[in-house]
Amino acid sequence: MQSSEYRRSVESLRLGDASEDDLGRARALRNRLLRVAENISELSGHIESLREAGSAEIPPLRKQLQRRIRLDAGNFIKATLVGLPDVPSEDEFEELRRRRVREAEERVEREKRSARQAKERAAAAAAECSSSKTRNNKATGSNGGSGLQRP
Prior knowledge:
The chain is mainly alpha-helical and about 150 residues long. The protein has four helices and no strands. The chain is rod-shaped. The relative contact order is 0.10.
């Protein structure tokens, strides 16, 4: 259904994932959905007021059916179309896009910082390991692990 497509489009716009073309398409889709709702309402109103030609009375079951059609059409409109989220204005859309770019830049910077810190920790651990090995070799009189001692 078009209303779910519209909701996805608006969500994408609000996340800053979409383009200005998507903004225009979402607006056009919203207008189309609102026209559909008006048509449904108008048509169900006509159905409710239908009478047989030359008859002043509507049979009770037919009247009840026409009324149910009108009520169900109204419920459909409420459940499906009323309360559709608004499409962001162009200013809101631009702000959302700027925020998304800023958040992406911050995320990249955090990842770079984290990688740099991990690299520094690894280098420090390697230096500590090398220094510890050298101290152990001096303490045991080892000359590089050959097992032979030189005079």
